[in-house]
Amino acid sequence: MTANCTNAPDAVPSDAGVAGIGVLLSFIITAAISLVISASLVFQEAFRRTNPSSSSSNHSVLRRKLLNSFSDQQILTGIGIQSVGLAKTSTIVPYHFFLIWMLSLLSMAVHNATLLALARDFRRDWVLRWMRQALMLANLVLSCVYGAYILRAVQRGINDSTFPVACIWDPATPDGPQPPNTAVSFAGTIAVIIGNVVIFGLATWYLHVRAHRRYYAVFQAVALLFMAAFAVGATVRVAYLADAFARAAPIKLRDAGERDWSFGQWLSVGMLLLPLVSVVEILRGEIKCAPPVAADEEEDKGRLLGEEQELRMNPGGNGGGGGGGRGAVDFQPNPFWGSQTDLFRK
Asked: For all residues of the chain together, what is the average pLDDT?
């Protein structure tokens, strides 16, 4: 469908699929729960370092599983909603496009906070680690593409117009008036894009690093606070801008579909219950979860919860081999390159 870039309509239809009240609440609630669980795990680990006798790894298994499920759900829905937005650039307006970008930043904050709490779980399974790396890269690329669109829209003064977002690249599209805060918006957008790239680099380092040092506790705490601030900022921006909450969208909408609790909105919120299924299965003993690796790496905690099954890799086998090598070692290199001490060399 070709975008109409010559005549801007007076009003545009609502888009509950990307800005409905249920969709926004599902992102916000998931982020809040994930950040609280991440903080509890990070601070529990720090407390266990100072009080080794108070180890409660078994008590954290449910929280770790719940956090992992919420994080998976958040990053996949974040990538999905960004993909939908890019596929609809000929019809979606900058207002909805910007809301999607804010939701993707919320998804990024949740994923990185989860990484801070569960990095050791990912390091000891190379499949999970590189799957996370691929999702992080996909989210970064999509977020940067969105940032480029937002920058161009701000530059041309049509970020609050009813033109389709694809029109920002069309020279025939008339430029809009420049608001007084254009320079602030432009600088803020560039700062967010650069911040995303820097955070991706730090997250990649943290995910693949081999050694463990004492200052990691400080790094975890500072990074967690930064991710929480990032999430709060994105949430406030969504709450201030979205018609579903503020009812003061910068453009005129033809209907109030984004405020209605339709089936799709209830479904989005109902999806929050899915991670609870894994918790019930763990409590009933139907799923076994390995407790976290000890923070000081002196005590082997590589046992399945409630069983005496050892998780160490077979010393006579290939330590980097496929799915059967889920050992209690702190870092499992992938079978193609790298080792437990070097990222590139065997």
From this structure: 78
| Encoded tokens for 149 | 């669109």
Phi then psi for residue 307, to 5 deg, are -135, 165
Question: What pLDDT score was predicted for residue 43?
Answer: 84
Q: What stretches of 157-289 show up as alpha helix (H) in DSSP?
A: 182-208, 216-241, 263-270, 274-283
Q: What is the 3-state secondary structure (H, E, C) of the chain?
A: CCCCCCCCCCCECCCHHHHCHHHHHHHHHHHHHHHHHHHHHHHHHHHHHHCHHHCCHHHHHHHHHHHHHHHHHHHHHHHHHHHHHHHCCCCCCHHHHHHHHHHHHHHHHHHHHHHHHHHHHHHCCHHHHHHHHHHHHHHHHHHHHHHHHHHHHHHHCCCCCCCCHHHHHCCCCCCCCCCCCHHHHHHHHHHHHHHHHHHHHHHHHHHHCCCCCCCHHHHHHHHHHHHHHHHHHHHHHHHHHCCCCCCCCCCCECCCCCCCCCHHHHHHHHHHHHHHHHHHHHHCCCCCCCCCCCCCCCCCCCECCCCCCECCCCCCCCCCCCCCCCCCCCCCCCCCCCCCCCCCCC
pTM here is: 0.80
Bridge partners (DSSP) of residue 253 are 12
Amino acid symbol at 118: L
Tell me the C-alpha distance between 221 and 265, whole Å. 35
Q: Which among 182, 183, 159, 175 is positioned nearest to 98, based on CA atoms?
A: 159
C-alpha distances out from residue 222 to 28, 132, 193, 228, Å: 22, 22, 20, 10
Tens of pLDDT, residues 42-68: 888 777 766 665 555 555 778 888 888
